[in-house]
Design goal:
By secondary structure, this protein is an alpha/beta fold. The protein is built from eleven helices and eleven strands. The termini are far apart.
Length: 348
């Protein structure tokens, strides 16, 4: 099987092909061969008509040729290292039963910004054990460099603050980790909360009893749960009290022990509410606080966001982890990242 594309070398348009100034210092060039064990997976790895390889070449400014189960990558040293890491990441996804889509490829290219240079000329380093979250319905792997740090913090720290724009996986990964721990029995309860504050809406405007009033505000948490567990299990565990979904006002006066507790949209809490919530922490518990400091919907005249206040006070405290996501970590459709960038650019 041969995938050489003569002449494609001239079409390199990636970062390594940029030229400015009189005569910049030429980057060190390298070539590395990557061998894959399962040749039957190479069709999915390379993509239809080699579209994945072409995208890697164009984005990173390298030349890729393949024969059998071996891939040769040539180009500037850093770009070759990045391309190798991307291909190995794609292969790892396939090897763990995941499909490769444009979002996964874009995420791996973004994650390769700090390539592993060891062995780039003489060979390739061994892979570290994959970081993943196993739930009843799927196995979740990181799709950005910051998600790797976040998933590590979800295991290591008692309280984790996750800050950043929409689409970076803050809440979804927290719910997935909570479901995984509930399945293994390391916690007995899963408690999901968020403030009942939205732009232009008030609870009193919605019909129904209290549950019917607050459910629309908590819908994103339900969506993440149903993605990680069969719907009938979600409903059964909610009925039994193993899973509780409630607005933050319902947390007052409680001690949340043996629980995985998640507060979503935390930028819409006041400092007093945030203090109340954090001090609910009990034995054998983990608490995750998610929010976007740039999307505060608190009504006019209210004091500063409780999320910003808490991070300012607690960042660096032992047992507390703070993970900052940026628009580069957006893992929804690529246009979401461009929308966030446009809005943040205008605000700046």
């Amino acid at each position: 099987m041969t995938f050489d594309r003569p002449g494609h070398r001239a079409g390199i348009t990636g970062d390594a092909g940029a030229r400015t100034g009189a005569r910049p210092e030429s980057p060190r060039r390298a070539r590395v061969e990557v061998e894959f064990e399962e040749q039957t997976m190479l069709g999915a790895l390379f993509g239809q008509f080699d579209t994945n390889l072409v995208q890697i070449e164009n984005r990173l400014g390298v030349y890729i040729s393949a024969r059998g189960n071996k891939v040769l990558i040539e180009g500037p040293e850093d770009a070759v290292a990045r391309a190798r890491d991307v291909l190995k990441g794609l292969y790892q996804r396939l090897n763990t039963g995941h499909e490769i889509d444009s979002g996964a490829l874009e995420s791996l290219i973004a994650m390769s910004a700090e390539p592993t240079l060891e062995g780039i000329i003489t060979g390739t380093p061994g892979n570290a054990p994959p970081i993943m979250i196993r739930t009843r319905r799927k196995t979740i792997v990181p799709r950005s460099a910051t998600q790797i740090s976040y998933m590590q913090a979800l295991v290591k720290n008692d309280v984790i603050f996750a800050l950043g724009p929409a689409g970076t996986g803050k809440t979804y990964l927290a719910v997935a980790q909570a479901v995984a721990q509930l399945m293994t029995g390391s916690v007995q309860r899963l408690i999901l909360s968020r403030p009942a504050v939205e732009a232009g809406e008030r609870l009193g405007f919605l019909p129904g009893d209290m549950k019917e009033k607050v459910d629309p505000y908590l819908r994103p948490l339900y969506d993440a749960l149903y993605d990680c567990m069969p719907p009938e299990q979600v409903e059964r565990r909610i009925a039994s009290g193993e899973i509780e979904i409630a607005p933050i006002a319902f947390m007052r006066g409680r001690t949340l022990a043996d629980a995985f507790v998640i507060l979503d949209e935390a930028q819409n809490t006041t400092p007093a509410q945030m203090k109340m919530f954090l001090t609910r922490f009990g034995q054998n518990s983990r608490m995750v606080v998610c929010g976007d400091p740039k999307q505060v919907d608190l009504p006019g005249g209210v004091a500063a966001s409780g999320l910003a206040d808490a991070v300012g006070r607690l960042e660096g405290v032992d047992g507390i982890g703070v993970v900052h996501f940026s628009r580069a970590d957006v893992v929804r459709h690529p246009i979401v990242g461009r929308i966030v960038e446009a809005y943040e650019g205008n605000e700046a």
